[in-house]
Each structure stands twice: as C-alpha cells, then as structure tokens.
Amino acid sequence: GQVTEESLQADSGSDCISLELRTADGALVTLTADFRQEVKIFRALILGELERGQSQFQALCFVTRLHRNEIIPSESMAKLRQKNPRTVRQAEEVRGLEHLSMDVAVNFSKGAQLSSHIHNVCAEAKEAIYTREEDVKFWLEKGVDGSMFEVLPQTSDLPDLQRCKLCADRWKPCICSYSLSIEWYPCMLKYCKSRDAGGKVSSYKCGIRSCQKGYTFDYYVPQKQLCLWDEET
C-alpha cells in the first residue's frame, strides 16, 4: 500500500533517460539508461547507520548491459506528458526479479569510456562500482578498454567466503546482497492500427506500456561493515 514518487527525465540529444525514486527505507535510487553505449547504471545512496560506525550515507553503482526493448527510446520518453501529476499509477506488467552476480569492479577514473554518465552518476561511489563478467565480454567486443575492469575475489578463490548475512565478524570479507525495485517505468510502446480510405492498414504509436521490475545484486565486500543492511531480521 506504499506510494513511491518518481521523477523521469529524457535527453534525446545524448540518447539517455534517467529515473529517480526514494525507497521506503530512505535510500535514493537512480536508474540511468545510456542507449548510445548500451549501458544501464543503477545507483543507490543508502542512509548509513551512524551508531554502528558507518558514514552518513553509502553509495553503490551497478553497471549492466542495456538490452533492446527493455525500456522505451529516449525520444519517446521525452514526449511523455503527465496530465495529472498526483495520480497514483500502477504498473501494467510485473517483470520477474533479476538476480545478478556482480563479479567485476569498474575503475571510476576510466569508466567514462564505458559511458560518459558514470562520471556524474557514480561520483559518490568511486570505490563501489560493480559489473558482471558476461557484460564485460560484450563491451570488450565493442572495443572498450579492458584495463578499467578488475575481477573480484570469488568463493572459489576464498573457500571460507560467506554471505554477509551469515558472517558474524563485521570486519571479515563477505558476499553482500542489495535489492531494489523500479516500481513504474515505460517499458514498451503500444501500437494501434488504422485503415485509410483505400483499405490500406498502417500502424502508429498510440501509448506506452508500464512495467515494474526488481533486481538483487550480489557482490564482494572487503568487510561486512560495508553491508550492514544484509542481516537476518
């Protein structure tokens, strides 16, 4: 029964869109889709637990490949107008939860080669930008410089590497889990058919379809202190 307020922006000049929302626990989540580079960037600014020695907030960036038809094009997004801004909208389609193993770190200073938006979006998360090996392979084939990527330690490298929620020692490395949900976004264009006087049928854009989608990211942290939300409740 909770209502999430979102802001959507589109820049058809640089062919990208961004969507921002605040979650129930106060985290600020941003999704940036860079269509030109086929990259999407999730950033989460998570409120820190000051009484447990954390800083005011913690920033995370997850960078993944943007597939075609995941989200409507930037020029279509730029044309969207909201007649009633206070209307509560519900997504027409709930897309399945995606569980992603983020096993590679991205070097912030070199990240602009992957997408120019990394520099702005991930500025607070310089030491916490993650991606997946399978996405890296795709970008390397497109000619991106491989030196910006560093494979993170895996369970196979460190046999006693546990999930953070099972790890008792706050200073030990572990596999952290962070979940977020994009509650409403325009995922597809709708097309309608019309017939002219001669009986010829043509189709035209006549609206959007909205979706909701959840993501869970697993990634290595050098100490559990960086993952205090991922605990058994």
Oligomer class = single chain
Structural class by secondary-structure content: mainly beta
Give me the Rg, rounded: 20 Å
Unreliably modeled segments: none
SSE string, helix = H, strand = E? Answer: EEEEEHEEHEHEEEE
Number of separate helices: 3
The helical percent reads under 10%
Shape: globular
- Determine the strand fraction and express it as a percent band: 35-45%
Task: Order the strands across the largest sheet as they lie in space.
Answer: 1-2-3-4-5-8-7-9
Number of DSSP E strands: 12
InterPro entries: Oaf (IPR026315), Oaf_C (IPR053897), OAF_N (IPR053894)
Family: Belongs to the OAF family.
Pfam family, one: OAF_C
Domain Out at first C-terminal: 163-231
Topology:
Blueprint: E1 6-11, E2 16-22, E3 28-34, E4 39-47, E5 57-65, H1 74-78, E6 93-102, E7 104-106, H2 117-121, E8 129-131, H3 133-141, E9 149-151, E10 162-163, E11 174-195, E12 201-221
Parallel strand pairs: 5-8, 6-12, 10-11
Antiparallel strand pairs: 1-2, 2-3, 3-4, 4-5, 7-8, 7-9, 11-12
Main attributes?
233 residues, mainly beta, eight-stranded mixed beta sheet, four-stranded mixed beta sheet, 12 strands, globular
Give a quick precis of the structure.
The chain is mainly beta.
Structural commentary:
The protein contains three helices and twelve strands; from the N terminus they run βββββαββαβαββββ. The protein has 233 residues and is mainly β. The chain has one domain. The strands form two sheets. An eight-stranded mixed β-sheet has the order 1-2-3-4-5-8-7-9. A four-stranded mixed β-sheet has the order 6-12-11-10, with no helix packed on it. Strand 1 and strand 2 form a beta hairpin. The longest helix has 9 residues. It is globular. The model has no long low-confidence stretch (mean pLDDT 90).
